[in-house]
Amino acid sequence: MRKPMIAGNWKLHKTLKESCQLATELVQQLATIEDREVVIAPVFTSLAGVAGEIANSPVQLAAQNCYPAETGAFTGEVSPALLKDVGCQYIISGHSERRQLLNETNQFINQKVSATINAGLGAILCIGETLQERETHQMLEVLTNQIKEGLAGITAEQMADVVIAYEPVWAIGTGVTASDEQAQEAHAFIRGLLQGLYYQEVAEATRILYGGSVKPNNVDGLMAQSDIDGALVGGASLKAEDFIRIVRFE
Ligand code: 13P
After folding, report:
1. What is the per-residue burial (b if ≥16 Cβ within 10 Å, else e) of 27-53?
2. Ligand 1 contacts CB of residue 222 (under 6 A)
3. Tens-place pLDDT, residues 78-134
4. What H or E segment, with its residue span, contains residue 96?
5. 167 lines ligand 1 (CB under 6 A)
6. CA of 201 to the centre of ligand 1 (A)
7. What is the pLDDT at residue 1?
8. Which residues have a catalytic role annotated?
9. Ligand 1 in contact with 92 (CB < 6 A)?
10. What Cα–Cα distance (Å) separates residue 167 from each residue in 89, 131, 143, 173, 221?
11. CA 142 to CA 127: how far, in whole Å?
12. How far is the CA of 135 from the centre of ligand 1 (A)?
């Protein structure tokens, strides 16, 4: 019942021209994909251009961030409504790089999730523990707080527009993937949290993506786990061949 989603987070990579080229390649190769959602998240300056390339294709567009206000004196920021206007279907919030580099809090991330849903877009909420938190047995507490505080005020009905991405910080960009079992264990725990916060139907319907060094050679094992519903891919999403293989997981 949960349609798998493979999302590529391009982070701070690629010019407008390079972004459009990669998007065009993906559209050509993935034109007939129906049984899984494919999402790409280029940098802001490439969004409108890429939207043109992927129009009328199954490839969907996500922004990597937003600011939780509609309009106003917020120099340098971009609202969910404007991201929708250029063709985004999703907005990523709470990525660990923003939590760490820009000190984003669960409360601020929660405002973004809420603003995203209110603008009529899907929210991809990223959570995940650091290595230190895992090693000092704080992982479950950290995930619990990230879920509870990140989803504060989000109703059961609104959860239809939320996708969770579990990205253990120690696995991001390191080439070290969580084992299939480690990832499944965390995903099952997160689904249990959703059941506690909402109810069983919500927990069962919510997609939980895994992120952290997902590659062509490890995606199949991860996707075989019962609570892993997709992947949020960084480095391997920058190369058409690798990302397409990940989308075509078996
Ligand atoms: P990598 O796939 O490069 O580890 O990045 C994962 C990630 O942060 C996706 O959001």
Report:
1. bebbeebeebbbbbbbbeebbebbbeb
2. no
3. 999 999 999 999 999 999 999 999 999 999 999 999 999 999 999 999 999 999 999
4. helix 96-101
5. yes
6. 29
7. 83
8. 95, 167
9. no
10. 21, 12, 10, 11, 16
11. 9
12. 21
Spatial separation of the C-alpha atoms in residues 123 and 21, rounded to whole Å: 26
Residue 211, SS3 per DSSP: strand
User: From ligand 1's centre to the CA of 199, what distance in Å?
Assistant: 30
| Residue to probe by mutation, ligand 1, list 9, 11, 65, 99, most atoms within 8 Å of CB | 9
Task: Judge contact between 112 and 66, C-beta under 8 A.
Answer: yes
pLDDT of residue 16: 98
Ranges of residues in the chain with a pLDDT under 70 are none
| pLDDT at position 175 | 84
CATH number at 99 reads: 3.20.20.70
CA dist., res. 71 & res. 29, Å (int): 38
Is the Cα torsion angle 110, 115, 120, 124 positive or negative in sign? negative
* 208 vs 221: CA distance, rounded Å: 16
pTM for the model: 0.98
- Domain holding 24, by residue range, is 5-247
- Decide: helix, strand or coil at residue 37: strand
How far, in Å, from the CA of 174 to the mean position of ligand 1? 9
Contact 230, 4 (CB under 8 A): yes
Q: How many domains does the chain have?
A: 1
